[in-house]
Amino acid sequence: MQKSALTRREFFYQFGSAVLAAAAALSIPGCLPGSRSKHAADITLNYRGRKPNIIFILADDLGYGDIGCYGQKMIKTPNIDRMAAEGVRFTQAYAGTAVCAPSRCCLMTGMDNGHTTIRGNISPAVPLKPEDITVAEVLKSAGYKTRIIGKWGLGLENSSGTPDKKGFDEFFGYINQTLAHNYYPETLWRNNEKIVIEENLSGKKGTYSHDLFEKEALDFISRHKSEPFFLYLSLTLPHANNELGTKTGNGMEVPDYGPYAKENWPDPAKGYAAMITRMDDCVGKVLAELKTRRIDDNTIVFFTGDNGAGREGGYDPKFFNSSGPLRGIKRDLYEGGIREPMIARWPGHIKAGTTSDQIWAFWDFLPTAADIADVKVPAGIDGISMLPALLGKPQQDHEYLYWELHEKGKFSQAVRMGDWKAVRLDIDKPIELYDLKNDLGETKNVADQHPEIVAEMAEIMKTARTESPLWPIKKKP
């Protein structure tokens, strides 16, 4: 699947700047040759003389059913619900896989996790390779200012996978995803410098990291309001502080329980709800800042989560029905582990109050962003631009979507092909088959009734991935 990495990088870095300069001199709105698609042509790319801004807000361990507009009845999310009312709500959008690092790798690289460098959570963390082209690099080649705020997790300091080596002009947050469990860190990273959070030294809890991320996001929007920007707001809410949870039984670390303080709920449930509502407040402030800076209608904002709700920190996902009608949670390749809320808002381009059943996944974000920015994508990626679906136009579909999972000593796989969903829980386990159109909760395994579909799924599971020495298939003795 992957083409020559050197050729791709040479294209972006040896020729990209020269083409940009030539395009600017000729007043050509596109920045790379042959890049202007029929979908991008429908967009006013020269609004106030600049391309559209792109903001991608990513929640951490958010269940499909945790947001009001996806059926949540107890947790308050008015801003995200309003975002859906002003944009499009996707009901069949998928994360990269069921745990964070490989899921985020799919998001950044446009590859499914049968082809990505990072396919699981292991320590020490596996970094992105020099040849892994990210969405930030693609957008930077088109003249965008790029920033990540929050949780990175795709390469530690001094590795080949640091944000500055992956196309981000600015970085503020946790470079180590394990340390991101702590919401009152003594240190964070600003670009390549570790900075001290004085208020949190010696075990004090003076500054909540999410509040810093919110402040940094608003500042970035304000500073770059007059030029095209890409903001990857990679939040840690509502992920549990796993270590605190182990010690106390309640790892839902939040300054206060907000509107849920007086509810007769277990403390972890109060904390989980408070974290989601705090995140919702942040989304509202981001949208308000865009209006204040008068760039609201030239900015597309995405909101989603990296995998299903977790059981860490003492929280029981059943309490709020976090998976909604879906089966499974984080670390499951059933729908509850990988299907996520996905909302996109872009006034004047995306029709307000719409719902779409378009099937798409994290690896589609890179080509979608490239199409929005009118820039060419790297060769050999797995993603498809979803810009037509965003604009309510006819959309090309995937032949299938593929996931794999390397957790708990098992090698699990899943495939979605049309309305069929296949799941194999380990290399020596039989393939389960579900008809999602008639069985959204994956309650009836119909593999015995459709041997021809099972055989096709088995072939996809065999061929849809490349071998990796870091992620070998461990066959049972």
| CATH third-level topology of the largest domain | Alkaline Phosphatase, subunit A
What is the terminal-to-terminal distance?
30 Å
Total of DSSP H or I helical runs spanning 4+ residues: 11
Mean pLDDT equals 91
CATH first level of the largest domain: which class? Alpha Beta
Our Rg estimate from Cα atoms comes to 21 Å
Relevant CATH superfamily of the largest domain: Alkaline Phosphatase, subunit A
Question: How does the major sheet shape up?
Answer: 11 strands, mixed
Examine the secondary-structure arrangement and name the CATH architecture of the largest domain.
3-Layer(aba) Sandwich
Secondary-structure element order, as H and E? Answer: HEHEHHEEEEHEHHEHEEEHHEEEEH
The class by helix and strand makeup works out as alpha/beta
- The total domain count is 2
Helix content: 25-40%
Low-confidence stretches: 1-36
Features:
about 475 residues; alpha/beta; Alkaline Phosphatase, subunit A; Arylsulfatase, C-terminal domain; 2 domains; eleven-stranded mixed β-sheet; four-stranded antiparallel β-sheet; 11 helices; about 25% helix; globular
